[in-house]
Amino acid sequence: MERPSVQVAVVLEREARPNAWEDWRFRIVEVVEQQEAFGTEPRLLFDDDKCSRWMFPAHTVELFRDEGEGYYLNLTSGQPVWFVMWRVDEADPSRAAVEAITLSYNEAGRWLDAQERVDNVPLQPHLVAWLEAYTAQHYKPEPKRRQRPASFLSPDERGRR
Fold it and tell me: How many domains does the chain contain in total?
């Protein structure tokens, strides 16, 4: 069975010598839907020796049923976003590349726990609606259960909490 997906391209900006402590600073500028003209290989969009922008096209973002909670958390955060994981090239620290993209808050959290670099940029409104429809169909939050106050538990039960 095919999963819902969207093809996207990521624009990454590199700034040279942003301060006395950094040689390079990178940031994700935007995530846009893939267009045929973008091709499939990373390419330089702009470079003025101080700042450059690179496009990393042809990334597929798939939706998975078991990530429903992560999509729900993203949607209810106030501003749904793309989470973009990127890495600096170890052989050439003046270069970086986009590695993965997700819409799941939980998956982005796992990447951060693994010490990866993750930036986020706003999700376009029509894709928010797409993600909301998928999440509504495939994710039902667990009902909250009331916990008994510790004062109503025996001393043995309090120690097991």
Answer: 1
The string of DSSP letters for 29-85 reads EEEEE--GGG-SS-EEEEE-SSEEEEEEEEEEEE--GGGHHHHHHHHTTSS-EEEEE
* Residue 149 falls inside a structural domain: no
Which tokens belong to 154? 């025996």
User: Is residue 154 included in any domain, yes or no?
Assistant: no
Least confident of 43-57, 75-89, 131-145: 131-145
Helix (H, G, I), strand (E, B) or coil at 135: helix
Q: CA 130, 41, 121, 65 torsion: positive or negative? A: positive
Q: What angle do CA 33, 131, 109 make, to 5 degrees?
A: 90
Beta bridge partners of 119: 84
Q: What is the pLDDT of residues 37-64, one digit of tens each?
A: 999 999 999 999 899 999 999 999 999 9
